[in-house]
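Hello forum,

I keep getting stuck at the same step: I have a sequence, I want structure tokens, and every attempt I make locally crashes halfway through. Rather than fight my setup again tonight, could one of you with a working pipeline run this one for me? It's a single chain of 212 residues.
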Amino acid sequence: MTSELETLKKQIADLHELVKKQSLIITKTGQNVLQLQLEKQRADVNKLGPTQPKVPIDFDSTDFASDQDLVDLVAELQGELNIVDERAIRRTANSTKTKATDIIAPLPNADGETPTVKDSFFPITLKDFISISDVNLVRVAKFYERLPPTVEEQQRIDNYLEGKVQDLSISQPSDESILKELQDYSKDEVDDMFNDVARYLGLTSRRGTETW
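Reply #2:
Ran it on my machine without issues. Output:
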């Protein structure tokens, strides 16, 4: 147990070090982008030549990233890295779960949202996950975008991209609609869904025999 704990601590430390290095790279990249933009601006001014009549030069400041733009970009990318870091740590923790009563660490999804106790669809223990109902399995798979969108969901996405709607939020489907959706899945496909979600969460539980 001590050896596993030390290994886990080392893995976590390595992950933090990786994130730190990536943060430095992102900051340096932002500085380089700003420098290139300033050099391009100077080059455009020099192209006018000294013999050209002096006329006001109107530069559209929106064509160039401001310091605040770069700060916001770095902050956004750092937020993404923090989510990746948190997800990796929790996957590593979940990979050690072997007892039925072990608590599963919920991962943040692509939007940075993490299931809570109030989200009854997410299993609390390893036993809960192994015996998860097909309906809740679909809910977990959808939460982590492990399933392709339904026709209705895709239509909603298309309308948002075309500017027809301003809000992309999709309401939670009812049990009835999920049961109807499950009619298009065979037992093997449901098992594949279970295994895909298990791999995503870092759990070692699997359904079937010929699977990794």
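The helical segments are 2-46, 67-94, 126-130, 134-143, 151-161, 175-182, 187-201. If your local run keeps crashing, start a new thread with the error log.
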